[in-house]
# Entry
Amino acid sequence: METNLNAFMKPELKEEQTITLPGIDAFKDDKGKPIPFILRKLSREKIAEIRENCTTRTIVKDHRTNRPMVSGNRIVYDEQYDSDKAGREIMVECFVQPDLTSEKLRNFYGVQLNSELPDKLFQGKDFDYANKCVLIACGLADDETEDEVIKQVKN
# Structure
């Protein structure tokens, strides 16, 4: 039985996809309504790349001889993963509105790095909400989280 490959050829999967979620009360338009968040759906490859960039590896050295430690004919490395940095980098990549890569926003809030903007823009519960929006956009949230976000916006 031959499979029709056309069924697997979805043009929308090749394009950058975005999702629109309700905004927060901290940022309102001229009519007093919260400005919606627009988030980019990141691929698993992009998320893995960000996580890899937030991982540092150092060679473990013998404290007596200062030579690299070897185990099973391989050099031993110590890996440190900065999950906070990765989370903020993923948030920056996801958000289209507000644009967390905006030089104008960085200058206004007095920060140098894009990854510093989420902490300035989103305070307390707003940060938690923005983070949940990112999880939904990336497909990392469970159904309960999506329902929770919708319920939070209604209240």
